[in-house]
Automatic annotation (TrEMBL):
Entries under NCBIfam families matching the protein: PRK00575.1 (NF001854), tatAE (TIGR01411)
Disordered, as annotated region: 44-90
Subunit description: The Tat system comprises two distinct complexes: a TatABC complex, containing multiple copies of TatA, TatB and TatC subunits, and a separate TatA complex, containing only TatA subunits. Substrates initially bind to the TatABC complex, which probably triggers association of the separate TatA complex to form the active translocon.
Record field: compositional bias (Pro residues): 65-83
One Pfam family this sequence matches: TatA_B_E
Source organism, top-level taxon: Bacteria
Primary localization class, coarse: membrane
Protein name, as recorded: Sec-independent protein translocase protein TatA
Protein backbone atom coordinates (compact mmCIF):
# COMPACT_ATOMS: atom_id res chain seq x y z
CA UNK A 1 0.00 0.00 0.00
CA UNK A 2 1.50 3.31 -1.06
CA UNK A 3 -0.64 5.55 1.15
CA UNK A 4 -2.53 7.17 -1.73
CA UNK A 5 -6.31 7.36 -1.79
CA UNK A 6 -7.66 4.88 -4.28
CA UNK A 7 -11.09 4.97 -5.93
CA UNK A 8 -12.19 2.20 -3.56
CA UNK A 9 -11.49 4.45 -0.57
CA UNK A 10 -13.60 7.23 -2.06
CA UNK A 11 -16.41 4.78 -2.81
CA UNK A 12 -16.41 3.55 0.78
CA UNK A 13 -16.49 7.12 2.12
CA UNK A 14 -19.43 8.01 -0.15
CA UNK A 15 -21.35 4.92 0.95
CA UNK A 16 -20.77 5.76 4.62
CA UNK A 17 -22.06 9.31 4.08
CA UNK A 18 -25.05 7.93 2.23
CA UNK A 19 -25.85 5.56 5.10
CA UNK A 20 -25.50 8.27 7.75
CA UNK A 21 -27.31 11.13 6.05
CA UNK A 22 -29.65 9.41 3.63
CA UNK A 23 -30.22 10.10 -0.02
CA UNK A 24 -32.67 12.97 0.60
CA UNK A 25 -30.22 15.16 2.53
CA UNK A 26 -27.20 14.64 0.28
CA UNK A 27 -28.27 17.11 -2.48
CA UNK A 28 -29.04 19.80 0.11
CA UNK A 29 -25.69 19.23 1.82
CA UNK A 30 -23.84 19.41 -1.51
CA UNK A 31 -25.72 22.58 -2.48
CA UNK A 32 -24.92 24.33 0.79
CA UNK A 33 -21.29 23.22 0.55
CA UNK A 34 -21.12 24.68 -2.96
CA UNK A 35 -22.58 28.00 -1.80
CA UNK A 36 -20.12 28.16 1.08
CA UNK A 37 -17.19 27.45 -1.20
CA UNK A 38 -18.37 30.14 -3.67
CA UNK A 39 -18.64 32.73 -0.87
CA UNK A 40 -15.24 31.73 0.47
CA UNK A 41 -13.70 32.05 -3.00
CA UNK A 42 -15.10 35.55 -3.53
CA UNK A 43 -13.92 36.68 -0.09
CA UNK A 44 -10.41 35.38 -0.72
CA UNK A 45 -10.23 37.07 -4.12
CA UNK A 46 -11.43 40.36 -2.59
CA UNK A 47 -8.78 40.12 0.11
CA UNK A 48 -6.09 39.45 -2.52
CA UNK A 49 -7.24 42.41 -4.62
CA UNK A 50 -7.30 44.60 -1.54
CA UNK A 51 -3.78 43.53 -0.63
CA UNK A 52 -2.47 44.25 -4.14
CA UNK A 53 -3.91 47.76 -4.37
CA UNK A 54 -3.40 48.66 -0.72
CA UNK A 55 -6.84 50.18 -0.52
CA UNK A 56 -9.91 49.28 1.48
CA UNK A 57 -12.88 47.64 -0.16
CA UNK A 58 -15.15 50.03 -2.13
CA UNK A 59 -18.11 49.18 0.11
CA UNK A 60 -16.21 50.40 3.16
CA UNK A 61 -15.33 53.72 1.50
CA UNK A 62 -18.78 54.35 0.04
CA UNK A 63 -20.47 55.51 3.25
CA UNK A 64 -18.65 57.87 5.64
CA UNK A 65 -19.03 57.26 9.35
CA UNK A 66 -21.39 59.75 10.95
CA UNK A 67 -21.29 60.60 14.64
CA UNK A 68 -24.36 59.53 16.62
CA UNK A 69 -27.15 62.06 16.88
CA UNK A 70 -27.39 64.03 20.12
CA UNK A 71 -30.37 63.07 22.23
CA UNK A 72 -32.25 65.57 24.42
CA UNK A 73 -31.48 65.35 28.14
CA UNK A 74 -33.48 62.79 30.05
CA UNK A 75 -36.49 64.01 32.05
CA UNK A 76 -37.23 62.48 35.46
CA UNK A 77 -40.33 60.31 35.67
CA UNK A 78 -42.84 61.24 38.34
CA UNK A 79 -43.94 58.40 40.59
CA UNK A 80 -47.71 58.05 41.00
CA UNK A 81 -49.04 58.91 44.43
CA UNK A 82 -49.90 55.89 46.62
CA UNK A 83 -53.59 55.02 46.53
CA UNK A 84 -55.37 54.60 49.89
CA UNK A 85 -56.49 51.01 50.37
CA UNK A 86 -59.95 50.25 51.71
CA UNK A 87 -58.61 47.12 53.34
CA UNK A 88 -55.44 47.51 55.35
CA UNK A 89 -53.22 44.56 55.97
CA UNK A 90 -52.53 43.71 59.58
Amino acid sequence: MTGAISPWHLLIVVLIFLLFFGSKRMPDAARSLGRSMRIFKTEVSQMQNEGKTGEAAPEAQAQPVQPPAQLPPAQPVQQPAPQPNDQQKA
